[in-house]
């Protein structure tokens, strides 16, 4: 876990570094995530709840409850479907 809390554009979010250049971002959570920077998380661990928070000054926008899910490899956004079961 390398970022947890208020993120520019995403509102409340969590960013997880999986190693090997892979980072996942979960944004627009309803409230401050229960996980902390530096905490190790495993598959199935609760990292937050979907919401509709956003940071207008950071270019964010939301019209309803949802989860913004991004996968980046070496800093570049990629299709997340290749990482899902």
Automatic annotation (TrEMBL):
GO MF annotation list: metalloendopeptidase activity
Domain of life: Bacteria
Domain M23ase beta-sheet core: 3-80
A Pfam family annotated for this UniProt entry: Peptidase_M23
Name listed for the protein in its UniProt record: M23ase beta-sheet core domain-containing protein
């Amino acid at each position: 876990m390398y970022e947890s809390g208020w993120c520019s554009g995403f509102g409340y979010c969590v960013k997880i570094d999986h190693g090997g250049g892979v980072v996942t971002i979960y944004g627009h959570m309803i409230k401050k995530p229960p996980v902390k920077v530096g905490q190790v998380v495993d598959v199935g661990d609760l990292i937050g709840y979907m919401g509709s928070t956003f940071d207008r000054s950071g270019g964010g926008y939301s019209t309803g409850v949802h989860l913004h899910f991004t996968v980046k490899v070496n800093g570049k956004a990629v299709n997340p479907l290749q990482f899902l079961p």
